[in-house]
Amino acid sequence: MEHISVIPDYRQAWKVEHKLSDILLLTICAVISGAEGWEDIEDFGETHLDFLKQYGDFENGIPVHDTIARVVSCISPAKFHECFINWMRDCHTSDDKDVIAIDGKTLRHSYDKSRRRGAIHVISAFSTMHSLVIGQIKTDEKSNEITAIPELLNMLDIKGKIITTDAMGCQKDIAEKI
User: Fold this and answer.
1) How much is the pTM?
2) Given this model, what pLDDT does residue 4 score?
3) Which of 10, 40, 95, 112 could pair covalently with 117 via S-S, beta carbons 3.0-4.6 A apart?
């Protein structure tokens, strides 16, 4: 829960009925468990309230799906990314035998023809020892993988690890960084 504290809560204090940390805990647990929308997150919370109370207050119960959606939409993606990276860094204690696979992917159905927005491309670092994504960066285009990989490597503790990448990541600057 301490990692969530870096995310600022911009809501008006006198109107807050549910703690930001509770809403984020609920949302993260629900999504990890397969929730695909705001109503699914609310349903997960109602079903697993006793479990959630072990880690959060939930003094006023589970927020309704509209509240969850509104609060989550106000969160800074950069701050949430920072929170995630720090959380994974603390969870991810590995030895030198860990293999970190760096790869870029284009997210299916992420393009929007009506708004002339291209598909979303992400570069991920996957720990094979833990079967866990330990870092991720969004890029504007697939060609930006080359500049994003060093940025991703800067976020990670790669000393002594085996790093794998595809041909796109086999650039001189990237190899030197590894």
Assistant:
1) 0.69
2) 80
3) 112
The predicted pLDDT at position 52 comes to: 96
The residue with tokens 């504007």 is: 140
**SS3 letters across the chain:** CHHHHHCCCCCCHHHCCCCHHHHHHHHHHHHHCCCCCHHHHHHHHHHCHHHHHCCCCCCCCCCCHHHHHHHHHCCCHHHHHHHHHHHHHHHCCCCCCCEEEEEEEECCCCCEHHHCECCCEEEEEEECCCCEEEEEEEECCHHHHHHHHHHHHHHCCCCCCEEEECHHHCCHHHHHHC
- pLDDT tens column, 87-138: 777 776 666 678 989 998 877 776 666 776 777 788 899 988 888 888 888 8
Q: Contact, 129 vs 67, CB < 8 A?
A: no
pLDDT tens track for 140-158: 765 577 788 888 888 887 8
Q: Rounded to an integer, what distance in angstroms lies between the CA atom of residue 124 and that of residue 139? A: 11
Domain ranges of the chain: 2-78, 94-177
> Phi-psi bin for 131: left (phi > 0), alpha (psi -120 to 50), beta?
left
